[in-house]
Amino acid sequence: MAAAVGSCSNVDVTPPPPGSPAETAGTPAESVTGRVTPLGLGSGLVVELDRATVSVDGRTILGPVSMRIGAGERWAVLGPNGSGKTTLLSLLGAERHPSSGLVAVLGEQLGRTDMRELRRRIGVTGHRVSDRLPPSATALEIVLTGRDGVLAPWWSSYDDEERARATTLLGWLGCAHLGSRHLDQCSQGERQRVLLTRSLFAVHELLLLDEPAVGLDLPGREALVAALDALGGDLQNLATVQVAHTLEELPAATSHALLLRQGSVVGQGPVSETLVDELLSDCFGLSIKVHREGGRYSARAVSSW
Fold it and tell me: % helix / strand / coil in the chain, to the nearest 5?
């Protein structure tokens, strides 16, 4: 079976945990959250979480989290290692059900929809996808796999029009010269931009960026940031969620941020209200000073050890 873009394994559907909204799909949303109207219906939102939690072996590792992501919004998710960033992304990517609370993605409520089909509508860029792509495939072939969400170009066939569109997209993200280069011959920064192009080749309303700047040098990071900023002008309805380690990785187009610490939300909202000294200091547990110039953020901290 071909893997979907947003899938990180060939497992079709993860069974919902006991007592989760998926197991009680016939009951109204009010039984879990007090709400009567199911999430994602008629709201015009791309993502909505209502007091969602994730528990493993009886321990809550994320939540409760409530958030709304609208069309065209660019979200950043930051926090220390182990704060729940990847777990949150797994909910947004329809890779797991919440243990409690409700999650709706692209108008579909998790637990009441086919997770495999929903994942096909979500673009994902990150090392968990990158590590499974064939290194001998060319950049152009990798981009083409984004159409069906498969992991190898020989699982599908593509016509000249699709190849031309893939080539145009590569050029748009500054990768035109990489079309015939094998993936294992690309630098880390070039690979990340090729993967971003792959996610954009299919038409998505939601793009998840799982630490896209990891391992990049300064030129590679800045090239990636420029590519992400370009999305703001050309794909205005595309909502993105970028998990990042530092403020310097965030493009100027970033509109909102959510801060996590030990699975709990420290702050969320527009970047001007969230990426501030006090909240970031609380999030990372040390004194942080934030600087903003030209829409880009940077931070300096006093070590706590």
Answer: 30, 25, 40
Cα gap 173→202, rounded to integer Å: 15
Ranges of beta strands (E only) in 186-255 are: 206-210, 239-243
Q: In 3D, which of 187, 184, 157 has the Cα closest to residue 174? A: 187
In this structure, what token pair is assigned to residue 188? 């880390």
**Helix, strand, or coil here: 154?**
helix
Beta bridge partners of 77: 243, 258
**Does residue 262 surpass a pLDDT of 60?**
yes
- pLDDT bin (cut points 50, 70, 90) of residue 234 is low
Report the 10 Å Cβ neighbour count for 157: 8
Per-residue pLDDT band for 233 (boundaries 50, 70, 90) equals low
Mean pLDDT, the chain, integer? 81
CA–CA distance, 268 with 279 (Å, rounded to integer) = 9
What local confidence, expressed as pLDDT, does residue 232 receive?
A: 61
Using CA atoms, how far apart are residues 174 and 225, in angstroms rounded to an integer? 12
Please write down the long-range contacts of 141-147, taking CB distance under 8 Å and 24 or more positions apart: 142/183, 142/194, 142/195, 142/198, 143/169, 143/170, 143/194, 143/197, 143/198, 143/201, 144/201, 145/198, 146/5, 146/197, 146/198, 146/199, 146/200, 146/201, 146/202, 147/201, 147/202
CA distance 3 to 148: 9
Cα separation, 192 vs 243, whole angstroms: 14
State which amino acid sits at residue 202.
A
| 175: DSSP letter | -
Per-residue DSSP letter, 12: -
Which tens digit of pLDDT belongs to each residue from 28-55? 333 233 332 344 444 568 999 999 999 9
Nearest by Cα to 186 from 129, 242, 140, 148: 140
Instruction: Identify which has the larger pLDDT, 235 or 95.
Output: 95
